[in-house]
Amino acid sequence: MSTPEDQYTSNTDGTEKEMNVVGHLSELRNRLIVTAVIFIILFIIGFLNVKDIYWFFVNDIDLELTAISPTEIIWVYFSMAGLVAIIGTIPILAYQVWAFISPALTSREKKVSLSYIPALFLLFIIGLVFGYLIFIHLIFPFLLSLNEDMFNIMFTVDRYFTFLMKITLPFAFLFELPLIAMFLTSLGIVTPDFMTKNRKYAYFVLIVIGVIITPPDFILQIVVAVPLMVIYEISIYLSKIVYKKKQAKHEAFMNES
What we know:
Layout: H1 4-48, H2 50-58, E1 65-66, H3 70-101, H4 107-145, E2 155-156, H5 157-174, H6 177-187, H7 192-197, H8 199-213, H9 218-256
Parallel strand pairs: 1-2
Helix pairs in contact: 1-3, 3-4, 4-5, 6-9, 8-9
């Protein structure tokens, strides 16, 4: 039979838990608001510099893009500004997530996880650049070569930039795979053995992605799929490094105990 003191303690614990949950939700909301404000600021900066961004993307093609409606012009402004905002917000969002979960981490885990943020941003940029080079030097010339002077080629800005984003953005996200593998390994969710045993399935998925984002040409699909496989192998290698360090730390702890 519970005493008044037990009931008081239970009520106090329940109130403290509710206050902690409310406090965490409030902190999360504030961090999301900060991220959203920075996104809007970067969007405005991108919007004001759309002309320079646009010419950066079209200088490498020997074609004049056409706008067939006023909405396409607005679409270019919003898509270019949105791209700038997304790229610039990635490290900010990553930092806000890190700051939110950092109280639950040890000092060493804080340092290691914080170092992932610049790497996250850098790999995203490298993936974008790689996808853009593949598009400009391989995919787009291949598609133009199919014309063989049969058609009068005219590209609208809407269709061109939509196709460009469909090619480049998947590479940007796939280049994050090594970092994701290291992070999941450090959490104990993934192991190098698991990634090695499931290599063939991963290769199949990467080949499917390569087929989706490239034209129906076998050579081009190989050119795209091979770097993705290399990224997966790099992910396994980095996962092994993290796993060995984690195992060594665990053994040292057990020996001390």
